[in-house]
Design a protein that fits this description.
Elements (H helix, E strand, L loop, with lengths): L1 E4 L13 E2 L5 E3 L7 H9 L4 E4 L15 E2 L6 E2 L8 H22 L9 E2 L2 H4 L5 H9 L9 H7 L8 H25 L11 H13 L1 H8 L9 H19 L4 H13 L9 H4 L7 H7 L2 H9 L5 E2 L2 H7 L20 H16 L11 H13 L5 H11 L7 E4 L4 E6 L9 E4 L10 E3 L8 E5 L7 H9 L6
Antiparallel strand pairs: 1-4, 2-3, 2-4, 5-6, 7-8, 9-10, 9-13, 10-11, 11-12
């Protein structure tokens, strides 16, 4: 047997010989592809070396307890151990998840189907036709009952992630925010040429949210970087929260793709408001608030300048600021005229607004307080309570990405929601570690552990959390 350090493995289109774990467990069969992703999965599982049979390549190893001679009577394939080591079990689980994700990625459309696309917005979004378009869209917005979240759970990474996984998430966010800002800059000019949809950006965010929903939620809690367009960051965050709720609501992949794109463009009418209103420091006057409430109608004007748009987008732009009890703006429509996607984007938008910094407000709410406010708005029939519950399940009552203080004084960060136990998430312990972590605490398995306080970068962090977040905004993930 030849020992090969994983660090020295080179990608191969097809392996000449099988690779085994030191226990004898098969890792890769002869003929399988060994790429950068597969090598990363070995490292992620903690496997530092693999073993290759010397001599002629044998076939697959025999069943446990029976030696397997090579075809030429040379090297013998090792036996599969009856009890697999944990690192082998983790590797095989992660490899199955990786394969499932790649299969999902191959089936996800690059763009929406023609029947869910408005091909000529200038003609089809005439003022007298908009409501007919919105009504047609609402017929295809109900959840399909496709349990995509079960598939997502199959390839959901476990913390702590590798530096490569974390950096890939950071790069995805940076590229998405830059692309959204570029699209918004073009849309700001009413005399500009035909506008292009951010379809590729929506797809990239959906793939990231499906591959690693917890890390995406952590990225949505990322503080605004200097030089970033606040409206572009808001659009990215709303898309992440909308997809988190959409996964819990059992939307299919096509519906999630359309939801992501509509979430990115839901506030596009804000680009046509006067800068002195949008950037106003301090509370808005009555006249300024009335001006802001015209932005959904201005958004329709912007959509008419696109080459094509998702079918659901006009209804979302018009209705996501409406409320189920008839309040809201701009038209005070009844609940049956507020589509499914508009309800989801509304919940995501309100949560992002409550937890983010705004120039007209003194301070943001911490994420726990913001979710409690969402629950109240759902109970009052301002927001759809079913959608609020879906977002709550995705985030947990102590939302993913937020810092918490346990009753015993330890600092932690929520890195995964608690499933049915929405108030008992998985927490990375960070006290005194400069972000390197002191393990993980599953609050669902520790009934005596109690959360004393919650924090976020936008609402304000205590000194120890601020120091950790400054060094690593994704500390704990």
């Amino acid at each position: 047997m030849k020992r090969i350090p994983v660090e020295s493995l080179a990608p191969a289109a097809a392996l000449a010989r099988p690779l085994h774990h030191e226990s004898g467990a098969l890792l890769f069969s002869a003929g399988e592809r060994l790429g950068d992703d597969e090598i990363s999965l070995l490292k992620l599982a903690g496997i530092t070396r693999v073993y290759e049979l010397e001599g002629d390549a044998p076939g697959a190893p025999a069943a446990p307890g029976t030696p397997a001679a090579s075809p030429n009577g040379g090297a013998t394939a090792p036996r599969e151990p009856p009890n697999l080591p944990e690192e082998v079990r983790n590797f095989r689980r992660d490899r199955r998840g990786h394969a499932a994700f790649k299969a999902f990625e191959r089936t996800l459309r690059a763009r929406l189907a023609d029947e869910r696309t408005i091909q000529d917005p200038r003609a089809e979004l005439r003022p007298d036709a908009v409501e007919k378009v919105a009504a047609r869209s609402r017929q295809g917005e109900s959840p399909e009952g496709v349990a995509l979240r079960q598939r997502v759970a199959g390839f959901r990474p476990e913390p702590p992630r590798t530096a490569r996984e974390r950096q890939a998430g950071v790069e995805m966010r940076r590229r998405a925010v830059d692309a959204i800002a570029h699209a918004f800059a073009a849309a700001r000019d009413p005399k500009g040429g035909p506008l292009e949809r951010p379809a590729a950006t929506a797809r990239a965010i959906l793939l990231a949210a499906a591959r690693d929903p917890d890390l995406c939620l952590g990225l949505a809690a990322w503080p605004l970087d200097p030089g970033e367009m606040p409206l572009a960051v808001h659009a990215f965050n709303v898309a992440v929260y909308a997809l988190a709720a959409g996964l819990e609501l059992d939307y299919n992949a096509d519906q999630l793709l359309e939801l992501a794109e509509t979430a990115l463009l839901h506030d596009i009418g804000m680009l046509r408001l006067p800068a002195e209103v949008v950037d106003r420091q301090g509370p808005l006057s009555g006249a300024e608030r009335s001006e802001v409430e015209t932005h959904p109608l201005k958004g329709l004007d912007v959509l008419r300048g696109f080459q094509d748009v998702p079918l659901a987008l006009p209804g979302v732009v018009l209705a996501e600021h409406e409320r189920l009890d008839g309040s809201g703006y701009p038209r005070h429509v009844p609940a049956d005229q507020i589509g499914e996607f508009a309800r989801v984007v509304a919940v995501a938008d309100v949560y992002e607004a409550l937890t983010g910094r705004r120039p007209y407000r003194a301070a943001a709410l911490d994420p726990h307080a913001a979710l409690r406010e969402l629950v109240t708005l759902g109970a009052k029939r301002k927001l759809d309570a079913r959608v609020v519950r879906a977002l709550l399940k995705a985030l947990s009552l102590f939302p993913v990405g937020s810092f918490i203080r346990l009753a015993d004084g330890r600092l932690g960060r929520v890195v995964r929601a608690g499933g049915p136990e929405s108030s008992r998430p998985l927490v990375a312990l960070l006290s005194g570690t400069n972000g390197s972590g002191r393990g993980y605490l599953d609050l669902a398995a520790q009934p005596d552990a109690r959360v004393a306080d919650t924090y976020s970068a936008a609402a304000g962090l205590p000194d120890d959390a601020r120091e950790i977040a400054a060094q690593d905004p994704l500390a704990g993930f």
